Every structure is written in C-alpha cells, then in structure tokens.
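During the reporting period the student researcher (J.K.) took over the structure-prediction task from the postdoctoral fellow and processed the backlog of single-chain submissions. One of the processed entries is reproduced below for the supervisory committee.
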Amino acid sequence: MKKQRQATPPRFAHRLFRLLCPPELFEELEGDMQEQFELDVNRAGEAAARKTYLLEAVKFAKPYYLKRRIAGLLTSRLKTKKKVHYYSPKPLSTAMIKNYLTVARRTIVRYKSYTLINVLGLALGLSCGILIFSLVNYHLGFDKFHANADRVYRITSELHNETVSKYGSVPQPIGAAMRDDYPFVEKVSMLISFGGNISFPSRRDNPKFDDGVAYVEPDFFHILDFPFLAGNREDALSQPNTAVITERLAEKYFKNDQAIGKSFRLDNKTDFTITGILKNLPENTDIRQEIYLSYPSIKQTTPWLNTWGGILSATQAYVLFKPGTDASKAEEAMASISTKYYDAKDAKTFQFHLQPLSDIHMNLEFGGAIAKSQLFALSLIGLFLVITACVNFINLATAQALGRSKEIGVRKVMGSMKGQLFWQFIVETGLITLIAFIFAIGLSYLTLPFMNEMLSTRVTLDWPKDINQPIFAACLLVVVTFISGSYPGLVLAGFQPITALKGRLTQSQIGGFSIRKGLVIAQFAISQTLLIGTIVITGQMRFNTEADMGFKKDAIVLLSVPETNATKQSAMRARFSQLPGVEKVAFLSAPPASPENNFDTGIRYAGRPENEKFTIFYKTGDPEYLSMFGLKLVAGRNLVPSDTTKEYLLNETAVEKLGVKSPQEVIGKNVNINGRNGIIVGVMKDFHSKSFREKIDPVCLTTRAADNSQCALKVSNQNLAATLAFIQKSWNETNPDYIYSYQFLDKHLQRFYELDQLILQLMWLFAGIAIFISSLGLYGLISFIVAQKKKEIGVRKTLGAGVGSIVWLFGRQFIHLLVIAFVIAAPIGWWLVDKYLADFQYHIELNLTTFIAALGITFLIAIVTVGYQSVKAALINPVNALRSE
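J.K. obtained the following structure tokens:
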C-alpha cells in the first residue's frame, strides 16, 4: 500500500508571497495561506488549490502593499526612519544559554536511548580521532628536537647492477672520505651497531646483560643533540676502549654508585671504561642504542669492515653540513667518491646520496618505520571515522525530529525565533558531544597501551607537554558539535508551526531519503572496501606463512654462538648431539632466508677480467647446512669441512646469471667471491633468501668457521619444552660468560612481514569500527522510516499483513542500498588490493570469493540491524498506531 503524497503549494507562488508580503505579517499569513491551501485541496483538488494559492499571492502586488513593502525596504537600507523592534532575547544571551542548557538536559534525560546511541557513536569516533592524531603527531616529530636537524643528513648507498638496490648503510671508509675530501662538511661520524653481551667480571656475581652497542666517532654528539648528564662531549670518546651510556643503563648496571670511571666487558673479550652519561633518550628518535663505544675500538673486533667493496646493514654515516650548504650541490660533488675509491667498472655500480634526517623515519625504502603515504591514509581513516560518527548523529537527530515536531511548533507559536531554536539544538548537540568527548578521552587512555604494544610505538597522551594535542582536541570538539548539530538544527528551526502542530510534516521538511540513503551507501561502500582489503591481506599473510620457500623451516631452533672458533663449536656440537629431542646440529652465519645478517658482495667467475654485474649473497655454514634445511643439489657434491681449501656452492639463479647453460658446466670452475678464490663444487636448487616481495637472488655457501655466529638445531616436536630446557642448560654450561637466547626459524622469518602484520591488524580494527559506526547509521535510518510508516504499519496489520511481509517492507530498501554500495566498493577494492599484491613477486590470486565474503558480512550485519527495528515495528499493536486517526 503506497502512502498518499502530501500536497504542497507551488514554490514560485510561495517565494512571490514571501517577497511581496510585509515581514511583520508574513509568519501569521503564511500559516493562514497553508491552511487554506489544504482546505482547497480537499474541496477542489490539488490543481485548483495551487492556482488559488498563486492568485492569493499575486493580490499582494496591489499598490497599497507594494508601497508598504518598498518603503520598508528603503527605510531599512537607508536608515531614514527608526525601525520598530519587538523585544526578543538575543539567541546567545546569558538567559537564553541557561534556557538552552535546561532544555538540553531535559531532552537528554527524556530520550535515553537516543542519547546513548549518539554518545556511543561519537565517543568511538572521537576516540579514534584522538588516537590517530596522537599517532600521526608522534611519527611526524621524530628527530626534530636536534638543534641542527635541518643540516644533518645520512649517507645512503645505491648499487646499480641488473637492478638498482638502495640501502641506508654505507661502506665503512666513507666517513673518512667525507671528512677529508669535502670542505662543506662540518662534522661527520660513522655509527656501526651490533648486538652485545655486557658483563662485569670485576664483580663477584659477574652480572650479564644483553644490550646492543654502537661504535661512533667523537663528532657524533656534536651532530646530534643527546645531552650529557656527566662527562664531556668534547673528549668522552676520544680515546680507545671508552664508552658512553645512558642514565637508564647507569642505574641498571650500578644502582646508586657513580658510573663514571667504571668498566664493563663486551662479548667477554674487550674492556671499556665509562667516560660519559647521557640523559635518557627521547621517545621520538630512531637512534635507540644506549651504549656508545669509541670508534677506534672496532678495529679490535671487526677489522674486516674496513673495505669499500662490502656494505654491512648496521653501518651508517651521518654528516653535518656547514651553514648555507646546498644539499643538492653537495650530492653532486659526492659523485667523485665513486671515481676516486673504485675502479672504472665499480664506479658505475656504487653511487652515494644524501637523506635528510627528517626523512629517515618515514622512508620505507631505507628501512624507515612508516611511510608518509601510510600516515596520510591513517589521517584519512581517522577523518572518515569522525565524519561517519557525525553522520550517524545527523541521521538519528532528523529521525528524532518527527517526535519533537509538536514541541517545536508550540515554541514557535509562543514566539521562539529560528535563531533561538537553532542554537537550542546546537547546545543540545554540544552537551551530548561533550559527554561523548569525556568518554572518548577515557577510552583513549585505556586503549593507548594496547595500541602502543600492537604498533611497537611509544605514543603518549601528555597534554601539558605537547600543546598540539589539547589544541586538536578542542578544535575537534567544536567542529564535531557544529557538523553534527547544524543540519538537524536548521531542519528543526525551519518547521512551519501549523504543519508541525498538525503532525503533517513531509519528508522534505525533515530531510529527504536521498541524503540519508546516500550517506548510508557511502558508509557501507567504505566498510566493504576495508573488508575486501582485510580479507586479501589475511590471505596473503597466510600464503607468506604456509607457502614453500624452498627449504625446511619448522622445528628448527636458532642459537647464538658467542665464540666462533672451531674448538668451541666442536664442544657445542658434541653436547647438543647427545641431547634427547635434538635430531641435527649445524653451524652457520645465517639461515637460508633471514631479515638480518645478510651480506652481499661481488663475484668474478672463471678468470674473467671483471666482476659480474650482479652481487651475490654470501653465507657460510658447515656440511650439515644442506640436510638441516632440506636444500637439494642439482649438480656436484656437498662442501667438505675445511677452512683452508675454499669451496663454494652456488644456487641455480647464480648459475643462470653467470650465463652458463647448465649447472654441470660450473662444477670445478674457479670463482672469486668477496675477494677470496675458490672452486665451485656444487649447485643448489633455488630457494627464497628474502621475502616473497623479492625475486630469488644469487646465493653462495662456503665453509668459514669464524663467520658461523649461529647454531641451528633440528628438534623433535615431542616433549618440546623438556628439549628446550636441556638445550638451555647445555648452552649455559658451554658458554657460562654469555646470555642465552633462542628463536624458532619460522618465527624469525615472520619479521619479513612485520609491517604487513601491522597493516592487517589495523585493517581489521578499522573495518570493525567502520562497520559498527555504519550499523549505527543504518539504525538511524531504519528508525526514521519506522517512525514515518507507523500508521501505515497499523493499516497493513489491520488488513491482515503478517510480520514477515512488514519486515520485508523495510528490508528490501536496504538490500538495494547494500548492493549499490557493493557496486561502488568492488572496483575500488579490487584496484587497491591489486596494487598491494603487485608489491609481491609471489602472491595469491584474486577471486570472487573475496568479494562475496565482504558482501556477505555486510549483509549479515545489516540484517541484524534492520531486522531488530523491523520486527519491533511489526509487533506493535495496530490500535496504538491508529489511535490518533
């Protein structure tokens, strides 16, 4: 049964009537005109009534009325006569504000369900806005506290082989070259970080700590501003075997004792004397090392680093330019490094560039924590969630307007002006928003620790110290109040008193369906887009975990090997081999794939005059390496345990890049890798040495016990806890001066996808919030429709309609909305996830299941939301619905 359309006067006639009628008579006569129009409709039909309305409007064009109207306009503009004003309180006077607050309080108490839903939606949206702003503000503030941050740069490397590879690390000698060759450099310092075992053998208990260290040059503390609490930055690291530690570590190591002058031992080999104490590092810096060692000391531990041909990922160089230096011109001058320190061929391969200090944190290409595009996307999501909460408020407020129409009609009859009614609703909205804002702040503080743990951040809500946060919060409160309250306030203030009192409001007078439906479609389109992305990323993460990487990774435990001499390794092998539950033992520099400890270097094959155009990943291991990880040989034999006779295994990709037709042809050929000559004795079947984002790289494997800093144990899954306890006991007995730690290889490989895992968690979170807020919007729209069709439902039930037909009456409208939203979301979602998957060389394939799942989830949620109100409406007593008729 279709509801009869409400007849309305012609717009042109109404505007003409407004123009010609004297202002002081307009509101009274407008009601009379509207009432007469409705009588004429019932008596003579709508067409005749519209004609009559137009004629009555034209009557005001009589000279008498025109004269009064023109005179009124002239006197108003020229101010030649004193205009008579009837007293009406100003909308924002003290008395009116008190009245607004009183009415707002009563409205909130009266409409508890309406208030609760609005507070819940706004609190959730505001909380997300506050947390996302704090997160974005936190990332944007990294390393900006340094006094000369605008003149500080990090040197980056760019290797041009078959492809271009970029690194935030550099060859170790580049620091001295920058200092000696370029007059525009004011200060330069190398920073080389390592894991470290800190011990105190002078103490009786000899405590041990697993804290990382960094070798830096003395100018490091002139380039970056880390304040000293004790010691002198000028000469704190000028002598070998000296160290600077943070205040936190000084308290950790020495409690209340004076740390200056005390000593500690690094890796049970080298003693260092503490010459300075730093103030604890701020949270917003990417330099997290807390032990800084004098740079000359590195020659005692890693003398092999002093080469231009290799790049260790832990080696960085920072420069401070003199004031007025043009960074682009400085980078052009740095081209001479390649020509001066490399031969003609390598000069084309190795190039060096400058990275501003402010870019380090937000450049994923060079190992940054987050990309600027991701911060922008986070900001957009936060904005969307806040606006969505505001839209839900608007939907519910306009739906609630039907119930308040007579209230507004009475107020207007009693003399309330539009401005007063508008500000009354703004105050109501502001009070609800303020309540929601208080809950949002509490929710933000409660969820902040979980957010920091999930995102590995150190975000704080410290408003007294960070002025940006309270300013944002205040602006957010004001903006949300006006966005949420303005449209409903204008709608309520615009009610015609006679129409409102008679309960004959039209859809256009309380906000048409088109606006509300469009907002719900937009909300669900974004929700479905987020769902599509979430489902695809989940599938890719499952693929990353379960797909075959070309080697075995399950039930393999990785241990550190503090002392890499052959005697110590033999002793550890003997102990571990006897343990129950340990099936295999192997010593190695790195597993087949690892997000760290990767070293690529040059290769020259079979007496060729120059190195190949590609670099090769250099790994060491004992003969058990292949069986430990299930690697297969396609040609040749395995390595023999020898450090004197150098033998190499290459993978299939390396053989292919050498331009050799078959793996058998390279067997027995000489090769020079990392400056060491040897013989190729075998070819391994290809395996992934990096994540699935990368193609399979050339890899070589050789024996060199001094480089085997890790031990891999293949363990049985039965009695795993007992096996791990036996391993720990044996390791501690073999290495009493070091700290025990272990990790499973499969967990270690998950670090390749830490950022993807973070994105996935955020996607699930934001998709859930977006769906929840969208459901609130849907609830607002169904509430509006149920209120509009209350009497229609009563008539239908009187005529015999069942609950199912009434539920379908409402449900079919929203099925159309969800389908339209899906039509919008599907191509957008496909384009976004296709861009995401394009970043992987090996990935899942898109299929219809993903899109059907997204649509199904939103359908299920919509059915629950709409079904509740629909069933509730279908069960009402038709007598109550029709009582006013």
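The committee noted the following: The longest strand covers residues 185-194.
J.K. will present the remaining backlog at the next meeting.
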